[in-house]
Amino acid sequence: MNHDPTCIFCKIVAGKVPSRKVYEDDEVLVFHDVAPWAPVHLLVVPKAHIATMYDTDEAHTAMLGRMMALAPRLAREQGVVNGFRIIVNTGPDGGQEVQHVHMHVIGGPRPWSKG
Ligand code: 5GP
Ligand code: ZN
After folding, report:
1. Residue 85's pLDDT band (boundaries 50, 70, 90)?
2. pLDDT, tens digit, 9 for 90 and up, residues 33-84
């Protein structure tokens, strides 16, 4: 599995940096964002290092579908029952700060600090 030892999310996947994990399977890890915008703010990441959505192709379709299908289930498990946002920032103009694909799942009662 592709791994970048300098990447913060690869370090989280490898257990070298702690995180508050909520879900894990063979290809996906989900943990709480360290700087949440809302009562619940999860990050859904592939375990393999993929820098941006530009680096995905048809081979990633099932994994990306798995990530999206997890969102409503995990949101509900976190008590988010009145709606949430899914955001995948991509590239400089997309505001992507961490260069490892991640899906934000953000929800819970408003007001939120951002978004
Ligand atoms: P981006 O702007 O790249 O879409 O979002 C990156 C997200 O990763 C931000 O919301 C930021 O708070 C989160 N983040 C960055 N470093 C860490 C970390 O070490 N642990 C956790 N749990 N979240 C992080
Ligand atoms: Zn990575």
Report:
1. very high
2. 999 999 999 999 999 999 999 999 999 999 999 999 999 999 999 999 999 9
Catalytic annotation present for 3: no
Residue 74 domain boundaries: 8-107
Q: Encoding tokens for residue 10?
A: 């690869």
Q: Which amino acid is at 33?
A: D
| Count of structural domains, the chain | 1
What's the rounded Cα separation, in Å, for the pair 115 and 103?
A: 14
Q: What pTM did the predictor assign?
A: 0.98
State the distance from the centre of ligand 1 to the C-alpha of 59, rounded, in angstroms.
Answer: 26
- Residue 14, in any domain of the structure: yes
CATH number of the domain that 88 lies in? Answer: 3.30.428.10
Query: How far apart, in whole angstroms, are the C-alpha atoms of residue 98 and residue 90?
Result: 10
11 CA: nearest ligand 1 atom: 19
Tell me how far the alpha carbon of residue 73 lies from the centroid of ligand 2, in angstroms. 24
